[in-house]
């Protein structure tokens, strides 16, 4: 596939997607989101890829959904197209882990795209916000849902209702980002973490992702049961035998993703 709005490459065992609409600060149009979906299909099918990283530019991860494209739409346009759900849903459906490496602006749909990933690594230049209210709309790709789960109700209300941006430090304190990295090391450090993840047993990595996500979608008892059953099933893997044998024999494990 020829990509117009993103750059897709593989670095070691990591699938890397770079959002690439610099003139529009990586504003997310339909084509770009379709392209991310196609890249995800490729990475999920590629047995060599164990982790995916999405990043943007120094100035912007993404400044939101494309306002120019949306400006002329009416209710039936967005309702009929089920706008935002149709192709954006591909991102949280990905079964391999996805890290957002965010420098500069992550606003509106850009912040929502980052939150659809499994974790956010932020450059010290990152700024997060849900400024849709200034455009006479509300967040439409999870901003009112994933943000309160990440930062709590008070800060989510504050950000969505006042359109205030938060910086990387505030985002880390609030639990939105996993790490802050100096901007010039963002990609290097994110790729290194992704390569570490990709070096573990892929089925175990996928089970952990599935199990942590259960914490958001079920009661504690349901989640604990899901975790325990998944834990039991890990004992069916050759990688469990290998991982434990390697520990006992004081050597590095050689996982085979089976
Ligand atoms: N859509 C389309 N184009 C955008 C854009 C967006 N979301 N954000 C920035 N751009 C474009 C600008 O129009 C500008 O294009 P031109 O050079 O052709 O005029 C270019 O990117 C550079 O932007 P600025 O000149 O504005 O750059 P700045 O440094 O002065 O400001 C900014 C940066 C604060 C991010 C500002 O661009 C801005 O406020 N952008 C809009 C942010 C926003 O409201 N995002 C929410 C969108 S709605 C949404 O996402 C809905 C949803 O929930 C999915």
UniProtKB/TrEMBL annotation:
* Gene Ontology biological-process annotations: fatty acid beta-oxidation
The EC category is: lyase
Which lineage is the organism of this entry classified under, starting from the top rank?
Bacteria, Pseudomonadati, Pseudomonadota, Betaproteobacteria, Nitrosomonadales
EC number(s) on file: 4.2.1.17
Residue ranges of coiled coil: none
Task: Return the CDD domains for the record.
Answer: crotonase-like (cd06558)
Q: What is this protein called?
A: enoyl-CoA hydratase
What is the role of this chain? Could possibly oxidize fatty acids using specific components.
Q: Which reaction does it catalyse?
A: a (3S)-3-hydroxyacyl-CoA = a (2E)-enoyl-CoA + H2O; a 4-saturated-(3S)-3-hydroxyacyl-CoA = a (3E)-enoyl-CoA + H2O
Recite the UniProt keywords alphabetically. Answer: Fatty acid metabolism, Lipid metabolism, Lyase
Molecular function via GO = enoyl-CoA hydratase activity
Keyword Lipid metabolism attributed: yes
Q: Return the similarity comment.
A: Belongs to the enoyl-CoA hydratase/isomerase family.
């Amino acid at each position: 596939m020829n990509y117009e709005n993103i750059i897709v490459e593989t670095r070691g065992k990591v699938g890397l997607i770079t959002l690439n609409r610099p003139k529009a600060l990586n504003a997310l149009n339909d084509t770009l989101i379709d392209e991310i979906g196609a890249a995800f299909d490729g990475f999920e099918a590629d047995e060599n890829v164990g982790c995916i990283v999405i990043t943007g530019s120094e100035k912007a991860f993404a400044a939101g959904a494309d306002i120019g494209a949306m400006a002329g739409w009416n209710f039936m346009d967005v309702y009929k197209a089920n706008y935002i759900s149709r192709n954006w849903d591909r991102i949280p459906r990905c079964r391999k882990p996805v890290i957002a490496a965010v420098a500069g602006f992550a606003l509106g749909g850009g912040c929502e795209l980052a939150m659809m990933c499994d974790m956010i690594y932020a450059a010290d230049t990152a700024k997060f916000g849900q400024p849709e209210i200034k455009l006479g709309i509300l967040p439409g790709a999870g901003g009112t849902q994933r943000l309160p789960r990440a930062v709590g109700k008070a800060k989510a209300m504050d950000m969505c209702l006042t359109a205030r941006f938060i910086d990387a430090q505030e985002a880390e304190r609030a639990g939105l980002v996993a790490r802050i990295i100096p901007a010039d090391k963002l990609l290097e450090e994110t790729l290194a973490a992704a390569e570490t993840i990709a070096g573990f047993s892929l089925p175990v990595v996928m089970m952990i992702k599935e199990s942590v996500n259960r914490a958001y979608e079920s009661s504690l008892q349901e989640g604990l049961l899901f975790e325990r059953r998944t834990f039991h099933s890990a004992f069916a893997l050759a990688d469990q035998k290998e991982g434990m044998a390697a520990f006992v024999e004081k050597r590095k494990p050689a996982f085979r993703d089976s």
